Every structure is written in C-alpha cells, then in structure tokens.
Known about the structure:
The structure is a single chain. A three-stranded antiparallel beta sheet has the order 1-3-2. It starts with 6 loop residues before the first helix and ends in a 17-residue tail after the last helix. The longest helix is centred in the C-terminal third of the chain and has 24 residues, at 121-144. Among the domains are: 34-103, Arc Repressor Mutant, subunit A, CATH 1.10.10; 116-144. Helix 2 (34-46) crosses helix 6. With 161 residues, it is mainly alpha-helical. Helix content is 65%, strand content 8%.
Amino acid sequence: MCDNLSKKLKRYNYLVGEIDATYHELSTKFGLSDSMMRILYTICDNGTDCPLQKICRLTGLSKQTINSALRRLEQEGIVYLEPLSPKNKNVCLTEAGKQLTQQTAGRLHEMENAVFASWPPEDVEKYIALTEAYLHALREQAALLQLPKKQNTGQHADNSL
C-alpha cells in the first residue's frame, strides 16, 4: 500500500512521531490534554492573547477540538473570549491562565530554548533553515495536488491516488 516510503522518509516519520510523543508526555505531566497544551503554547507564543483563527491555523487542530478545549479552559477560568469582529474572536488569558501558561507552555519554551542553546549556533540556523525549506517544498507539492471530484458516496471517484 505505502511501498513508496524511502528509508529516509521512514526515519523522518519515526522521529516526528517520537517528538510528538514527547510533547504528549509533557502535556500529561503538566495535567493538560494535548489540545489544551497546544492552545496555551500558541497563546504564549503570541503573548497573552491570540486570535482564534490563528490558533486554528497554527495548531492544526480541528475547530471542534479547539472549541471543546476552549470550553474546558473557560470553565476552569484559564481563558475568556472577546469579539474582534462579528465573525472573529480573540482568546485571552485570565490571571490564572497567565500563571498556568507560564508553568506549562512557558516551561516548555524554556526546555526548547535549552535544546537550541546546547547546539552550536550554526546547527540551530541550519535546522531552522532546513525545516523552513521542507515546509515551503511541502506546500508547493500540496498546491500541485489534484484530486478527482467526489461523488455523492463520499468516496473518491478514482482510487488511483
């Protein structure tokens, strides 16, 4: 089925999976779901608030997952929503949310910074440059993807993908 995976791609996928598993373990240690942690991390990257659309884009989570996590964070007094426009909302940290975010996402940022600090600066720059190049190339490949129109059955009209 997926016979076209190169050894390098398999290794890369394994490493990405292990990195994801490490982030999951950290979320669990912090007592947060993965989605809650990703939301707090994204807000922390942005300051103390972040537009909901940006959170959706940067986390890659579904709107349903984000809304469920936000409801829980609201119930726990960690975040509140304020309107930016009739269709857009801003997710803001409460005082308790600022403390929790510092203890969780802030500590994760410290760990990630420590990793980069342990590498030679040129390796950090190369890693970031290669990651960015991979992102751009993958986006270019995604833009070229042509899928057949779906029929009413919900399946692809052509299974030759």
